[in-house]
Each structure stands twice: as structure tokens, then as C-alpha cells.
Amino acid sequence: MSEQGAPPAPRGKRGVKPSGKPTLKTIAQMTGLAVTTISRALNNAPELAQETRDRVQKIAAEIGYLPDRAALRLKTGRTNVISLILEPDEQIYGFGTSLVTGITEALRDTAYHLVITPLFRNVQPIEPIRHIVRNRMADGVIFSKAETFDERIRFLLDHDFPFVSHGRSHWPEAHPFVDFDNEAYAHGATLRLAARGCRRVSIILPDSALTYTEHLKSGMERGAREAGIAHEFAADVNLDSATDAIRNYVIKRSRRPDGPDGYVCASEVSALAVIGGLTDAGHEVGRTAHVVTKQSTSMFMQFRPPAETVEEDFIAAGRDLGALLLRRIAGETENLHAVARPRFDWKD
């Protein structure tokens, strides 16, 4: 039968009406190719001609073919699924969307599909990891908010299960990760605030368990020491605090005689709250007080905030996460990490 013809109706067995669900055999009948060739073409086997792969994949899409993942898992031990674990609030300001964009770019032209696994509130972060590993729901996992001694990383290392974390840990064994050099960022941002005339700088830190909290603290401490200015870490609030709580904290702290006149911000949301608090306390941001923040979306600049920014590219991070996980699944174990350096482009 020609490629343009409709596939023959599957013949029933023992009077049972067939489901009509397209199979590898259906595509084989339509193309005249062997079932094994169809399977390799759908998995982008490099030894097949690109024309053959394109032809098979086009027909599979047209007839609505979907692989039987249960059968695939039984036959090969693989699912061709990569799971990205996200908390609902990680979609705020496009963090999750940016990661997904980058990861899917890395998975393009492979047999892998990305599945989002939600991490709901009041559920321990280790639970979805355990579920995926014990039930072989994916060939690898990606997750964020790595802690200094993250039990998810420990569990995955102990089970030799492929993963890449966004952020790193302090476990002695090397593990795959993608990160932003937050120490270099906080160091450079602090020096910038000092150059703008700030005499005391502060930062709203992430949760104390997260590894990059240490990096931010270390960078600010080093920058303040080199510049000969005072520094402090905001008390009673962190990046998970409500924006109103951050804003009120900044207002109260700014009204004291020793209030900070410069802030390093680790997120755009916290930067907007800090700018609001400084303004409410009587400062003119950009003149009597200054703010430097990381920027990961174009949305932040739509508010036209009087802050200086340093880009953190989450789409690029997603591409790195996907590429490193593919290498880990393929059996690599060395040099599976990427750390993005901040680029300072100050406008005087």
C-alpha cells in the first residue's frame, strides 16, 4: 500500500473487535519497512537515513501513533520519559516556563519526552523522587532548590538513578548539577553598591537550608570587606516571605539611623518589594538608596524600577539541565556540571 493510503483495518482475533489503535506494525504496513526499522526511526537512530526517519515520524504523527510505555519499559527498561519536578510557585515570573523551554530544546530530536511532576504544598520534596525511582516512572529526573545536604540527591546517588539538580550540594560524591555563580554575583553587586556611595548594604536571603544562601552570604561578606563598608543579612524575612512582609521589613529597617542604603536582591519579586519599602520610607531609589538585583525575565523591566540588574538566564540553564541529563542517562559520570558566571554591564 502506498504511503498516502489509509492503513488496513486490523483484523480481529477470535471475534474480538480490534481497538484500531495504531501500532508499529500499522506503520510498517503503510511504509513497507520492517517493524524494527520503524522502531529505530521513531527513536532517531543515527544509522538510519534522515529521510527515512522523517518519513516514519511524519506518518506516525498523522495516524496518531503513541508508544506503549509499559511495553517499552518491560522490553528495554527505559520509559523515554524525563521528569521535571516543580513547585506551583516556581511558575511565578516564568522560572518553570523558562526551564521547560530550555529542557525541551535539549530533548529535541531525541526519543525523550518531558513530563512535569508537581510538588504540592505539605508534601516532602523526597516523596515524588521516591515514587519515580521505585516505580521506574522516568529514565531521569530534574529538580531545583538544592540544599546543602539534600536528601533527594543522597537517595538518587545511592540508587544510581540519573538526575541533574538546579543548584548543588555538599555531599562528598560529585553529582550532576547546573548552577549560577551566586557568590560572584553577590560580590560584584556589593562592590557596585559601594561604588555608588552606599555605606551599609543588605540582602534578603533564601531559606537557610539552600546551598546558594551560603554563596550569597559569602559573596556579600567578601565584597563588603574589600570595599570597607558595613553589611548585614535581613532578619525575620527571606525570599519565601510574602512581599508585604519584605516591604514592611525594609520600611522599618530604613527608618532606623543605621538602616542600609543599598540592597542586593536575589530575585525580581524581592527587588520590587525592597524598592517599594525604600520608597515608602522616604528614599529616592537611585539617589539616596540603591538596589542591584538578578533579572531573569523581561517582565521586571516593564515596571521601570530604578534598580541595576544582572541577568540570570533560566532558559540556558534548562538547556544545560537537559543536555547533562542525557549524558548521564547514556552512562557518563564525569564533569557533569555547569556554572553560569554573572555578566556585569554597569551603566554609569
List the defining traits of the structure above.
six-stranded parallel sheet, 41% helix
Task: Describe what you observe in this structure.
- This protein is of the alpha/beta class and 348 residues long.
- Helix content is 41%, strand content 15%.
- It contains 13 helices and eleven strands.
- The chain has helices at residues 24-31, 35-42, 50-63, 69-76, 95-107, 126-134, 151-158, 182-195, 211-227, 243-254, 268-280, 299-302, 314-329; strands at residues 81-86, 113-118, 140-144, 163-166, 177-180, 200-203, 230-233, 262-265, 290-295, 308-311, 337-340.
- It has a six-stranded parallel β-sheet, sandwiched between helices. Strands 7-6-8-9-10 form a five-stranded parallel β-sheet, sandwiched between helices.
- Strand 3, helix 7 and strand 4 (163-166) form a beta-alpha-beta unit.
- The longest helix is centred in the middle third of the chain and has 17 residues, at 211-227.
- The protein starts with 23 loop residues before the first helix and ends in an 8-residue tail after the last strand.
- InterPro entries: HTH_LacI (IPR000843), LacI/GalR-like_sensor (IPR046335), Lambda_DNA-bd_dom_sf (IPR010982), Peripla_BP_I (IPR028082).
- Keywords: DNA-binding, Transcription, Transcription regulation.
- Residues 1-23 are annotated as: Disordered.
- This is LacI family transcriptional regulator.
- Residues 22-76 form the HTH lacI-type domain.
